[in-house]
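Notebook, bench 3.
Goal today: get a predicted structure for Phage tail tape measure protein from Azospirillum endophyticum so we can plan the truncation constructs. The sequence was checked against the plasmid map this morning, with no discrepancies at the termini. Length recorded as 331 residues. Pasting the sequence as submitted so the record is complete.
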Amino acid sequence: MSVSKLGQALSGVAADAFKHLDSKARGALENLVNSGQISADDAVLGLRSMATQATFSRYSRERPRDQEDDQRLAASGSMLDKQRGLNDRMGAAREAFGQAFSNLQKAQESGELSMDQVREGLRPAQEEFDAQMAAIGNEQAALGKASSLEAGYEKTVKGFNAAMGSMISEDGFTEAYSEKANGAAQKLQQLGFDAKVFGNAFQNFAATVDIPGIGSKAGAAAPKEEPAAAPAAAPAAPAAAVGAEAADPVQATAAEDSGAGKPAAVDRGNAQAALSMLRAAASGTQKSGSDGILGALAGAADGTADTAASGLLDALKSGAGKAGPDDGKTV
């Protein structure tokens, strides 16, 4: 029996992760490769990246935590609460301005006010909105550059790369947050191979990984099928599955609250608040020509940024804080 392009390229971690996909997800992936939308090599790299992200997410939640982590987590939690409060105030200010504009517009449409009167009536609301936004901006600047988040996340990334070092190879896991590997994963997600298609497959895979110092989860979900390679004539994915709008990448690597087979739940508000602070720091970092996660997040595509936000939240929950740069080693 002939083996498909994807089947020929599958090996190592990608092959193991592939076994955790159901027939729908396997068919969607086969269809993307067979249709030429992505190469078999890039599809395999994307699988390795997703498998690594899920394993890193598990590592960040389960790694032993020391006193430094606890202190950093408390400080980071306080910063996140303040940032969330500022975001709420910003939303309220925009809503108030929008309501004022809407009321004046309705009065103008009914003939009660002229356009000049509308503009004059809108002036106080505009001034109030500008003043509130300036105050919020000053308070955001006072929060600092989220150094504790950056340092803690870097600690988690270094710990993961060290723990998994023997398993990071050409067909094994990638470096945590490898730019090249994450780019391949993002391309798959943009093509529709997302959490709506593969569900908890990568979390289930991560649960089976024997992470040095942590081990594997007892009772981890076993793959439904274990073929040696992808079938030559995999079922074609439904058009809706392949062309569906990409699900939030946060869901792809989100933490399970209990059991590998349970759908994950992420506090997206916390993740985005943390990401907002890192981006604020990144804007200053880029001006000085620095690299790393701060610089990367400032210009990151939404999918990559959301994935980083998810990993950041997992790290924060276990007392960590920054994704390290890709150092050009094995992806």
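Residues 283 and 298 are 6 Å apart (CA to CA). Residues 69-146 form one domain.
Flagging this for group meeting.
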